[in-house]
Design goal:
This protein is an alpha/beta fold. It has helices spanning 24-33, 48-64, 75-81, 96-102, 115-123, 149-157, 173-177, 188-191, 196-204; strands spanning 9-13, 38-41, 68-72, 85-88, 106-112, 128-131, 162-164, 183-186. The chain has nine helices and eight strands. It is globular, with a radius of gyration of 16 Å.
């Protein structure tokens, strides 16, 4: 896939609280200006109609910056809009083979700390897998904490790109990067920054 080469670097994920629908485009563009290579639209509150409108605009913006656009969870909408990418969680793990047949863009899967699940997802056609949380996450405070050594094991056993996510910030970034993930996903530490573009550059300078 032509977009697979972009599965590297800073992977920003929008958030209902930090990037509400009225300013999500503005904030995403600031992150793109800072070098974000992947943007995931994760919107749990907007109606499907509103979400479709936002998704179209965010994908257009990503194309302008030659970045990858990923839609979270909304499988049918991702197929309809022919999104660059789709990210799914545990509720859709068992449907991955069917999703792969219907969606022709990049598919990413949350694997938490489960290497066997990641290997299964790779076999079923996933293009990347995400592991975490590695630290306490302001976005998902109830997430289980996964040891960073999972990244090392994943790099040894999985051939598709690997993403680290969960509570990552500039204070622990060096520790995460030392395990050589292909991508680092960030939410709060980007969107809550006073200067989103400069904050994004701190991450992109590590890749």
């Amino acid at each position: 896939m032509s977009y697979q080469r972009k599965l590297k670097g800073l992977y920003v994920i929008t958030d209902d609280k930090s990037t509400p629908s009225n300013n999500v485009l503005e904030k995403v563009e600031l992150a793109l200006q800072g070098g974000a290579s992947i943007v995931q639209l994760r919107d749990k509150t907007s109606s499907d109609t509103v979400l479709e409108q936002i998704a179209v605009r965010v994908q257009k913006l990503c194309k302008e910056y030659e970045a990858l656009f990923v839609l979270n969870d909304k499988i049918e909408l991702a197929i309809k809009l022919q999104c660059d990418g789709l990210h799914i969680g545990k509720s859709d793990h068992k449907n991955l083979e069917n999703i792969r047949k219907r969606f022709h863009g990049i598919i990413g899967v949350s694997c938490y700390g489960d290497i066997l699940l990641a290997k299964y997802c790779e076999l079923m056609g996933a293009d990347y897998v995400a592991f975490g949380s590695f630290y306490n996450s302001p976005t998902k405070p109830d997430s289980n904490i996964v040891p960073l050594k999972v990244l090392q094991e994943a790099k040894e056993k999985i051939t598709i790109p690997i993403c680290a996510i969960g509570g990552i910030n500039t204070q622990n970034l060096d520790e995460v990067i030392s395990y050589k993930p292909d991508m680092v996903s960030v939410i709060s530490d980007i969107w809550n920054s006073d200067n989103i573009t400069e904050q994004s550059k701190i991450y992109t300078d590590n890749f």
